[in-house]
Amino acid sequence: MVVKASKAERKSSYDTKLCSLLDIYSQILIVAADNVGSNQLQNIRKGLRGESVVLMGKNTMMKRSIRAHAEKTGSTAFLSLVPLLVGNVGLIFTKGDLKEVSDEVAKYKVGAPARVGLIAPIDVVVPPGNTGLDPSQTSFFQVLNIPTKINKGTVEIITPVELIKKGEKVGSSEAALLSKLLIRPFSYGLVVLSVYDNGSVFSPEVLHLTDDDLMVKFASGISMVASLSMALTYPTLAAAPHMFINAYKNVLAVAVETPYSFTYAETVKEYLKDPSKFAAAVAAPVAAAAAPAADAKKEEVKEPEEESDDDQPIFGLFDDE
User: Fold this and answer.
1) Is 320 helix (H, G, I), strand (E, B) or coil?
2) pTM for the whole thing?
3) Cβ distance 111 to 186 under 8 Å?
């Protein structure tokens, strides 16, 4: 006869397991597990097996184990997980690439029917077409103001209808209609809520940022720093190029309006006295760039080669024509 472990023994075993995982892993995904069944969760565990471990449990037990681990080891980094353990959540410990693990978790979604009282995670649109239902079922469509017609003894939906909007509760009529149409509009799986990486906690959207996105954000930050520095007349590395250019413009403006001059100002003064020189200076590089292209075109156009007598067939004296 198998003796079941007591409640205290189960708590102790869970505490030991969680603390050991905290010692081994430094990367954790905090995931929501709403509407995720046991079979689906088991498939996720199999899919992540090798470099990741999925651990579910009560929030109070997880918080208690994390605090106990912090007191025991003296490391307070994992305490940042405690405020995130709200609702039906779990932890995925991993040593792999966080983005790849997050994408792998997102693959395991299972279609689910629209049950009464559920909050719709997406818009539900009923497509037009034959429903296969007999005319006696038209009452469902009339209640929901769905335009229909009878075609060959069955109910046919004329136009696509937005039955449920995202964020709305599923009503009994909507649930009954979708069930009759065999439509399972929702899909559920583990949803990554937050990411823990070596003491830092951030949003999962960060995992999907590309190098181009980072460059854009970095450039935007530099632009803001430069703008603030210019407004406060406080020199920074970001504002230095703009300050030098503005100073050069000021000095050049003074040189143009006064007898004072310097090397670069002389060229500008010459252009102002005779604008045709500026036009010639601009046209020269354009012409220089166009010359190689013209030469290349000439080389492509070749004269046809003359046929030599050597290419003509030689007939002997006794050869037939």
Assistant:
1) coil
2) 0.62
3) yes
Mention every residue, 6+ apart, whose C-beta is less than 8 A from residue 155: 130, 131, 133, 134, 135, 137, 138, 141, 148, 149
- Which residue ranges make up each domain of the chain? 12-109+189-206, 115-186, 213-289
Helix/strand/coil (H, E, C) string of 148-210? EEEECCEEEECCCEEEECCCCECCHHHHHHHHHCCCCCEEECCEEEEEEECCEEECHHHHHCC
CATH number of the domain at 12-109+189-206, please? 3.30.70.1730
Around 184, how many Cα atoms within 13 Å sit in the side-chain half-sphere?
7
The two domains 12-109+189-206 and 115-186 share their CATH topology (first three levels equal): no
Please give the Cα distance from 35 to 37 (Å, whole number). Answer: 6
HEC string of 227-271 equals: HHHHHHCCCCCCCHHHHHHHHHHHHHHHHHHCCCCCHHHHHHHHH
Q: Which two tokens stand for residue 146?
A: 């769905």
Place of tokens 């565990």: 45
Listed residue (127, 29, 19) closest to 75, CA to CA:
19
Place of tokens 């405690």: 82
Question: Domain 115-186 belongs to what topology?
Answer: Molybdopterin biosynthesis moea protein, domain 2 (3.90.105)
Terminal C-alpha separation, the chain = 111
pLDDT in tens, 81-124: 999 999 889 999 999 889 899 988 888 888 888 888 888 888 88
Q: Which residues are registered as beta bridge partners of 194? A: 30
Residues 76/28, Cβ–Cβ less than 8 Å: no
- Which tokens is 203 given? 């949003």
Closest among 268, 229, 271 to 248, alpha carbons compared: 268
pLDDT at 318: 41
What Å distances lie between residue 101 and 51, 205, 269, CA to CA? Answer: 9, 14, 64
**Nearest to 177, CA basis, from 129, 140, 202:** 140
